[in-house]
Amino acid sequence: MDAAFTAEQDEIRRTLRDLLAQHAGPDANRAAVRTAEGYDPVLWRRLSRDLGLPGLALPEEYGGAGCTVTELALACEETGRALLPSPLLATAALAAPLIAALGTPDQRAALLPRIADGTLTAALAVPGGSLATGLALTGDNRDGSWAGGGRAGGVQARGEREGDGWRLYGEADRVLDGHSAGLLLVAAHTGGYPRSRTLLFLVRPEEAAGLARTRLTAVDETRPLARVELRDTRAELLGAAESADAAGALAAAGRTVAAVLAAEAVGTAAGALERTVDYVKAREQFGRAVGSFQAVKHRLADLYVRVEAARSAALYAAWDPDAGPLALAQALEAARITAGEAVQLHGGIGFTWEHEAHLYLKRAAGDELLFGPVHRLRDHAAQCAGLFGSGRPAATAPHRAGV
C-alpha cells in the first residue's frame, strides 16, 4: 500500500478546501440548513458541476470521474471539516453504490448519470430507524428483523398480480436527507413471514401517490432527517429479479459508507481541533496566552495524536473497505472527544449554543446516534472476526484474492 497522495488527490483536497472556506462558514451553514432543502442548492450545483463530487467514485461510462473510494473519502474529509450541509453522503456513499450493484442496465443508465452530475439526489430509507443494522455495521442484517421481519411494522411490499408493479406500505424514520431527495431507495419485506425476504425498491416522489415525507427535528441540523410514510405507494424493484441479494449489497455498501463517513468524522475532529488551537493562541489569561499553559498543551497534544490515528485508520479503510466499521468507530470516538474538549477549552463562550464549537459537538453526537454507537460497531466487528469464537457467517465473509 502506497500511503502517499497523488497529485490529483492533493488537488481535490486543496480546491475543495479553498471553495468551502469561501462559501461554507458557520454563518453560511446556519442559513443553508434553514432552507427547504436543508442545504445550499447553489453551492451544491457548483460542487457537482465544477468539481464533480457526486460522481467521483462512479464509472466514467455513467458520467462519473472513475475514481476510487479514496477520492470520495478525501472529499468528505473536507466537507466534514467545514460541517457542510449537503446530500453528498446520502447520494454518493449510500444510494449510488446500491444502484450500481443491484440495478438493471436500464436503471443504471437512467439514474447514475443524473446522480453524477448532481441533478438527482437520493436517500436510503431503512425501516425502524436502524440504518446501522441495515448496513450490517452494528449487527447481522441477514434475518431482516431490522426491516420488520415480515411481521407487522417496518415496510411491507406487495406485488400486484395484474401487472401494476409493486406497492409499499409502512414507514421509515431517521432517513438521511429523505425530505428533499429526488429518489428514495426503500428497504422493504415481501413474501410474508414464512418466506420473507428483504428487497430494495425505487420510489420517485414526484410520481408516488400515498407518499408523505416529514422533516424531523435533529440533534445536528446539518444532517437533515425525515420520516417517510408509504401508503399503497407505487414502487419499482431495484434489480431484475426478486432473488437479488439485497442484504449482501447493503452490507457491502455499509463497509464503503463506513470508510467514507470515517474520513468525514476525521475532518470534523480536525476542524474542531484547528479552531481550538487558534482560540487558545489568541485568548489570554493572567497576562499570557491560554495555549502557553502546559496543561492545555498536553490536552491539545493528546487530541492531535487521536485525530491523526483516526485519519490513518480512515485512509486505510478507504483502500480496504472491510476495515471500515472499525475505522468508523475510531473516527466517531475521536470526533466526540475532540468536539467535547473544544467546548471545554473555549471556556465560557464554548458553552453557548451560538458558538461554532457546539456545531462540531452536535455533528459528532448526531453521527454516533445515526451510525453507531461506537461500542456496538466494535462489538460486531469483533464478532465477525471471530474474536469471541463465533465468526462471520460464510455467506457474508468478504472474499480477497490470495487469502
UniProtKB/TrEMBL annotation:
The keyword Nuclease does not apply. Residues 6-118 form the Acyl-CoA dehydrogenase/oxidase N-terminal domain. Keywords: FAD, Flavoprotein, Oxidoreductase. Its cofactor is FAD. It holds the Pfam family Acyl-CoA_dh_N. Its EC number is 1.-.-.-. One of its GO terms (molecular function) is oxidoreductase activity. Residues 260-380 form the Acyl-CoA dehydrogenase/oxidase C-terminal domain. InterPro entries: Acyl-CoA_Oxase/DH_mid-dom_sf (IPR046373), AcylCo_DH-like_C (IPR036250), AcylCo_DH/oxidase_C (IPR009075), AcylCoA_DH/ox_N (IPR013786), AcylCoA_DH/ox_N_sf (IPR037069), AcylCoA_DH/oxidase_NM_dom_sf (IPR009100). The keyword Translocase does not apply. It comes from the Bacteria. Belongs to the acyl-CoA dehydrogenase family. This is Acyl-CoA dehydrogenase family protein. The lineage of its organism: Bacteria, Bacillati, Actinomycetota, Actinomycetes, Kitasatosporales.
